[in-house]
Amino acid sequence: MLTPEQIASYERDGYLLLPELFTPAEMAVVRRAASDIYAMNRPEVWRGKDGEFRLAFGVQHYHPVFDLFLRHPRLVEPTRELLGGDVYCHQYKLINKQPFGKLDFPWHQDFANWSKFDGMPEPRALNISVFLDEVNEFNGPVIFIPGAHKEGLITADVLPMEGIDQDGAHTIQGRELERIARANGMVAPKGKAGTAVLFHPYMPHASSPNQSPWSRSTIYLTSNRVDNHITRPTRPEYVAHTDFTPLRAVADDALLTYVEEAAAA
Amino acid sequence: MLTPEQIASYERDGYLLLPELFTPAEMAVVRRAASDIYAMNRPEVWRGKDGEFRLAFGVQHYHPVFDLFLRHPRLVEPTRELLGGDVYCHQYKLINKQPFGKLDFPWHQDFANWSKFDGMPEPRALNISVFLDEVNEFNGPVIFIPGAHKEGLITADVLPMEGIDQDGAHTIQGRELERIARANGMVAPKGKAGTAVLFHPYMPHASSPNQSPWSRSTIYLTSNRVDNHITRPTRPEYVAHTDFTPLRAVADDALLTYVEEAAAA
């Protein structure tokens, strides 16, 4: 459970860093599962022009470790607490920034997509990113503007976003973003593998390419309050889920138990 | 003059950070001169497709402040000391990474260009970058691999570089760069306006786009030992100078005196 200070920090800043929420042993299980995904050929697995893995959507549907991870109490409980009720999984993806890769993301707010393409009524959702690898200043950390979620949806200076996973999504730029960034500053949370970052649907975020030899693989889980479920899905089910069943937490040691049972089988 | 520790640090790491080498008052003079350059239309001033200023070569030839700055004792003396003799200016440019701009640089070593295109015999030169604006982790700082200058010229996994100011220059990538970066780590020197960074011709370096609202304007001065002057210039004179006259230092207060005299005139 989150402390009152952590809840206040999320509400003030629009993000919350939970350093090393998962142990190295747990993250080793998750990284092995990610390696399985990298090798898969499925419609949910998207690659760049060079054939390089970029991201995979809906990973709970074709890997049991990611299904367990989605329901992990250390992810489900803080989300229920911050959103104030039962939640379901709206989107769940694995993104890998390869060493010396080109993948980057311009400034954007996720709620713009969820509203426009999926018909999500209100920003009663949140993202959790979990670092599968250590994130440092050289491998393309996500940059936030603390407190900028209070600006709501930014509609000035918007351009269509280019990029393989953002069909028509919008990019924020220009004077409005400048005003908000000058007023609030920027922060790029870093940490060891197993660290998690929760952030608000209105939080503007961006990231640079990975300039380093160190992979930066990350899970992004979007949880939405059940009574805020989407109403006009236009994207594939694996991009915007339509199963609104509440997430129920598995046991806290589920990842390690899974490996032990798989080894015994 | 540099301390023995600073000289040892440069030789060990291949770069040396000199925090706030110039005062805010001096940098205000240099920034005003840079603003004059941004507005100029000359062959030496290069812009992107959007008309945005990117860089200007040979700025000493058309702005008196940059001519003074080139000869500033706090730049000339450390260079003479590290290179062990008289030096001349091989290249001198102003680069501006605009707020939320696209300008970045892939991994490369400058000596590859100086040798191939200009016929510089040996790496008896060095770069000094001087920060006209504060450099932070969000506005595209230059990344180094400490100690990697000892690798010499990296010839494996080389690709032609794309970019408006690097006609045919090569980009380092792949396993060789990975090996060197894993062995040495990375560093991105930051600091207030007026900070200088000296770095070796063999130092691999790269930088990401400016993701912030804060301009990142930088002077890059390449000094070469006079007895190592170039022998086969193929690029415009403003890119690779052919005047090998040794740089003689002006007075230490030359920038402020210039402004006073200009105001009195």
Q: TL;DR?
A:
Chains A, B: GO terms for molecular function: dioxygenase activity. Two copies of one chain form a homodimer. The first copy, chain A, is of the alpha+beta class.
Could you characterize what this model shows?
Chains A, B: Keywords: Dioxygenase, Oxidoreductase. Two copies of one chain form a homodimer. The first copy, chain A, has 265 residues and is of the alpha+beta class. Chain A contains seven helices and twelve strands. In chain A, the strands form three sheets. The first copy, chain A, has a seven-stranded antiparallel sheet. Chain A has a three-stranded antiparallel sheet with strand order 5-11-7, with no helix packed on it. The model of chain A has no long low-confidence stretch (mean pLDDT 93). The A-B interface holds A 99-100, 104, 107, 137-138, 143, 173-174, 177-178, 181-182, 186, 188, 206-209, 211-213 and B 99-100, 104, 107, 137-138, 143, 173-174, 177-178, 181-182, 186, 188, 206-209, 211-213.
Strand-helix topology:
2 copies of one chain form a homodimer.
Chain A: H1 4-13, E1 15-18, H2 24-38, E2 45-47, E3 53-57, H3 64-70, H4 73-83, E4 87-97, E5 105-108, H5 110-118, E6 125-131, E7 142-144, E8 158-160, E9 170-172, H6 174-184, E10 196-199, E11 205-207, E12 216-225, H7 254-264
Antiparallel strand pairs in A: 1-10, 2-3, 3-4, 4-12, 5-11, 6-10, 6-12, 7-11, 8-9
Task: Tag the structure with descriptive keywords.
alpha+beta, 7-stranded antiparallel β-sheet, 265 residues, 3-stranded antiparallel β-sheet, Jelly Rolls, homodimer, 28% helix
Count of extended strands of chain A: 12
Number of helices of chain A: 7
- Percent range for β-strand residues of chain A: 15-25%
Biggest interface, chains and residues, is: A-B, 22 and 22 residues
How many structural domains of chain A?
A: 1
The parts of chain A where pLDDT drops under 50 for at least 5 residues are: none
Radius of gyration of chain A: 17 Å
Give the overall shape of chain A: globular
Helix content of chain A: 25-40%
Q: According to CATH, what is the topology of chain A?
A: Jelly Rolls
**Oligomer type:** homodimer
So, CATH architecture of chain A? Sandwich
Helix-strand makeup class of chain A:
alpha+beta
CATH top level of chain A? Mainly Beta
Averaging pLDDT over every residue of chain A, what do you get?
Answer: 93
Largest sheet features of chain A: 7 strands, antiparallel
